[in-house]
Amino acid sequence: MAKTMMHLGFDLSYAHMGGRWRKPGALRGRRFPDVAMYEEVARLAERGCLDMLFTGDGTGVPDTYGGSRDAAIEWGMNWPRQDFNPLMVAMSRVTRHIGFGLTYSSTFMHPYYLSRLMNSIDHITGGRVAMNLVTSTRKSDAANFGFDELMEHEARYDRMEEFVDVCRLLWDSAQPDAMLWDAETGRVAEPSRIGDVRHHGRFFKVEGPLNTPPSPQGRPVLIQAGGSPRGIRASAYVADHVFGQDMALASQAKQRVALDQALVALGKDPAKVGILWQTPITVAESRAEAVARKDALLSFIPPEAVGAYLSYNCGYDFSTLPARFTLKEIQAEIVAANASPVSPVQKMAEELGEDTEMTRAEFLEEGARYATSHNTMLAGTAPELADILEEAFEATGSRGGFMLGHTASLFEDLTAIVDLLVPELQRRGRFRNRYATTTLRETLAEG
């Protein structure tokens, strides 16, 4: 009996940050955002038949730690960044099959602008684009868009759902056969195939229709990463595929069940919505080599950089930590600050116990494992890691796959994924040997 095949993406988000660029050969002598480097990445990833290249994003400079941007800028923590849109367009021009996932915030952006942008990129890539929507939990990002405070957690998801409602109306406002381009008569399109929108909701008022031709995929693929109960309900409502966090397998299985229940409640088929689990990974010919590469991550950044990273991602200034505290106390303050309840501190509490007491120095030392993804990074040979991926794939319903990334060294690790891990998964009947479809939506529907 044929095995169900998994999907594999590669997350570029942190390849140039968190000290990873320091490793000899990590960026092959280039510096972010060298477009030729990313074109080389795209060719390499497509050689491995990966589903997509993906990047998360943030639009602010981390300034939570000590109320200053200095540590983040000095040590390259979640900085520098830029909109990956033009880089992914460039990558699409040197490839034919691999997809591209771009991240935008539904809390800060407007649905007309993003629906139009994603439609345009879908045309340029030939139907290979996905939009990853986030609700945003960082005050520095919010300030750049004129917000004095973060929108309340539940309201951010309410806005996201309405945001997607508007995008879908706009994408559907032109029927697939609307365009005529009839040179003999001069008719460009059939007016009756361009519909109205006229959305008047709680957050948005949009008349429409979209003034672009219908995109190759009809609608770009939608990805969403909510992990809280409210976030999971939003994922069921908005997402074609879900971006799942790197966490214990039991927690991943629990999220899969919760997502399935939410999908059924909405009348959707859970079999058609995959979860791509974020999976920090390093693959090597020997386990010792892989572990050494993983452990090197901890030497890339100092405690101050750890503080800047955790403060930014938790919405809490860890430079103000008391002399001694429990993880439960700090996590309660993070949630009270109107950030997401899903945070690195929550993960730390789950692993070490919420009543674990720490000093500030102990917290930052332990926090380095979370700031570098060392705590969840898989390290080993291709057969060893294929065993782990197969177990996780089956335990979470054999729907979706993995978003590999947060690697120690961009080219070294991506090359090992393509040359070692992918062939192992292919031998096991778990991954494609070639691309069989045209659009990203079709590629992600393969099973």
Could you explain how this protein is built, in words?
The two termini are 13 Å apart. The chain has 447 residues and is α/β, with parallel strands linked by helices. The radius of gyration is 22 Å and the shape is globular. The strands form 3 sheets. The protein has an 8-stranded parallel β-barrel with strand order 1-2-3-4-7-8-9-13, surrounded by 8 helices. Strands 5-6 form a two-stranded antiparallel ribbon. Helix 10 packs across helix 13 and helix 11 packs antiparallel against helix 12.
Low-confidence stretches: none
Radius of gyration (CA) equals: 22 Å
Q: Give the overall pLDDT as a whole number.
A: 95
* Proportion in β-strands: 5-15%
- Helix percent band: 40-55%
* Biggest beta sheet attributes: 8 strands, parallel, barrel
Class per helix and strand makeup: alpha/beta
Distance between the termini: 13 Å
How many helices in DSSP terms? 16
Query: What is the strand tally?
Result: 13
Strand order of the largest sheet: 1-2-3-4-7-8-9-13
Could you spell the SSE succession in H and E letters? EHEHHEHEHHEEEHEHEHHEHHEHEHEHH
